[in-house]
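pipeline stage [seq->struct] | target=Acyl-CoA dehydrogenase family protein | organism=Nocardioides oceani | residues=369
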Amino acid sequence: MDFTLDEDSLAVQGLAREILTDRATTARVREVETSDTRVDEELWAALTSAGLTGLLVPDEHGGAGLGLEALAVLLEEQGRTVAPVPVWPTAVATLALARADAAGGAHGPLLTGIASGSARVTVALEEYGAADPAAPSTSASEVGGRWLLTGVKAAVPSPVGAGHVLVSAATPDGPGLFLVAAHAEGVRWETMPVTTHDLAGELTLDGAEGQPVGSGAALAETLRDARIALAALQLGVAQGALALAASYLAEREQFGRPLGSFQAVQHQLADCWIDIDALRVTLAQAVSDAEADSPSAAASALVVSWWRAQAGLDVVHRVQHVHGGIGVDVDYPVHRFFLWGKQLSGTLGGAAATLADLGDVVVRDGVAS
């Protein structure tokens, strides 16, 4: 397959890298980590002004109308700088809303708001315990023509500032997606800091009204998109971590030689490079299969999820290790990449759970990736 980025994606890459490099400095990220919202609203506004938060919004609603490849490029650049902005949850929700709108839904005004920056949406796809994201225990019941949701969602990313949340829930006809106003009747939030210093939300729904989004396949498609988005973000985190290690090891000396000249250290970095390259290749395959609606799209998304969970975590572990004592100093930025890599490795299920899901998909669909 051709791994060359198209013209639009190259433009996104250049613009995103310029904005994020200039604005998501170590000092600025540290400042945002102790703020009330844990979101860099100034950076989010800059990304919006550049059209980057509306990449996936159809052009008739004021967006760029691009797809997963452009999103993956943007998230990779975000990961390089561990910039505290809610790109992935907003983008994954946008994709679901855009698909539903194209199929006759009425999500145009919200999509227009996302493109302009006046609206933000997050996703509630996880629950407590060993819950399978594809089989939520949160329930949705139709009462008098209204869908009412009841249940608890865990680790909702960046709910502060989001006006709506896309919630997965079980219905009598199978799992589905519902759009819920973030502060509607029957909605209760408790926020708490998580590993990346983001404020995540515990969302309790007690008969909250939700608007169905998409068809019966909507949740499966959204989980696929989320896995791809998380892998792209992890790819950037791993590359940013490796760049820090290479710079540090080239400058720090021991026994009169740069640490990077020692063979044992070189082997560690070589393993990191191999893992990053594998993550990049499987991400490209997953994006290609998803955009082509290939029969192997679900399997490809799980393959790259395994690399995100296992290899991504391995990379940040190795990078932390080769930094020695300075790796545990929170004044030095490498710890931040470890924290992001750690959390991303477990979102929507860790390596073992992902591998089990992949086995189920291969058996069910008769495909391998």
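stage status: PASS
auto-comment: The longest helix spans residues 218-251. The chain has three domains: 7-119, 122-212, 218-365.
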